[in-house]
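Minimal example, chain plus flavin-adenine dinucleotide.
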Amino acid sequence: MDFRLTEEELEMQELAREFARNEIKPRVRDLEEAGTFPRDLYTRMGEVGFFGIPFPAEYGGLEGSFVGLVAVIEEIGKVWQPLTGAFNLQGMTVPFTILNWGTEQQRASYVEKLIRCELLGYMALTEPGGGSDALGSMETRATRVDGGWRLRGSKMFITNANVADVGLVYAKTDPEAGARGVTGFIVHTSAEGFDAQPIPTRGIGENMPTNALYLDDVFVPDEDVLGGEEGVGNGFKYAMNGLDYGRLTIPARAVSVAQASLELMIDYAKERVVFGQQIGRFQMIQHLIADSVAEIEAARLLTYQSAFAKDQGQPSTRLSSISKYFAGEVAVKVAQRATETFGGYSLTSELPIERNMSWATLYHAGEGTANIQRVLIAEDALAFRNLDRPVPTPRYVEERAS
Ligand SMILES: Cc1cc2nc3c(=O)[nH]c(=O)nc-3n(C[C@H](O)[C@H](O)[C@H](O)COP(=O)(O)OP(=O)(O)OC[C@H]3O[C@@H](n4cnc5c(N)ncnc54)[C@H](O)[C@@H]3O)c2cc1C
């Protein structure tokens, strides 16, 4: 394996580093104090092309690599976590799912606009009954009516739904049919009966809002059924495939927040003097730093390995699970060590120590909790399931190949 980034990937990484330094960092304090959604930064990042890195040029993408994308996420995340959510919604779980499984018309209408942030996206799968059992807990129903469908139900923890324009909602269209009874719908937030209510979240807040979503007989025309008539009953497959892409970005986000915590620890360990010496001279503080350095490096390698496998067209679901699980654990452990290093000062709101812990917790839990990843990894090891079994070829790939 070649561990070097290509020239193109290095250029993209440098561009992201400069963008974060010049356009994000100077605004962090004001945005956090105001608690506002940074729509203009989404727009700028869309213009620069960050979300479109691995997308085909025919939809406005840069035809770059997933490895390059991961390198960019890390640079942005080290400076400000709230913007990293955009990589899932504007880059992976919404536009990639539409690219892979949408009709030609849906691809043309939404993919480029999403990656350029002319439209902001959301993805609504989780329900109040429990995110880990997304299928079993799904009570949202869609009923066929003249010219389309009516959606009724509620969703939980839906990022950006209150500020977005359009997104994907998964609902049961045939409750008796299990995984084959779910359909994906492209739902505009302006639709009558659509209501998104922000939920207060500790440490994450309105810079990346998450919402309870209420769907009160929302009408969706037939043309907005994800994948058209062929998509009816295939929504769960589409959602799981979309999450497979999302699981590529979560470990990169986790590595970035762990790295940010580590850098704060290192600076403070050199600056803080107690008992007449820098606390970084104490072995117990050095242990915290050494363990963090080693674990972050391992998490980063796993993250890049999983992106590299996707770039090579190799099966990557097992690696995505492993890297998501491992990087989420590392992010939480490093955030905890940063808390210990800063002592009482970790609780001051001036420093992002507590906030980093909240982001780490999100990466530990979101898009398949650490326990769920453990279940998957163990069942694969025990040969009870095969995570890297051949997946259905996306419709887009099939169409372009024929
Ligand atoms: C800030 C934020 C943003 C989010 N954004 C989105 C979004 O945009 N769209 C979306 O659809 N969802 C979103 N989510 C939801 C997220 O994906 C879920 O929180 C996650 O899937 C876990 O579901 P849950 O919180 O309902 O936990 P639960 O499923 O209730 O699990 C609770 C605990 O039980 C454990 N557990 C459950 N089943 C098992 C098992 N079989 N074996 C062992 N342990 C188990 C879990 O690991 C966890 O520790 C978001 C969540 C947060 C916090």
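The pocket of flavin-adenine dinucleotide is lined by residues 123-126, 130-132, 157-159, 201, 204, 210, 362, 365-367, 369, 371-372, 375 (CB under 6 Å). The longest helix spans residues 235-271.
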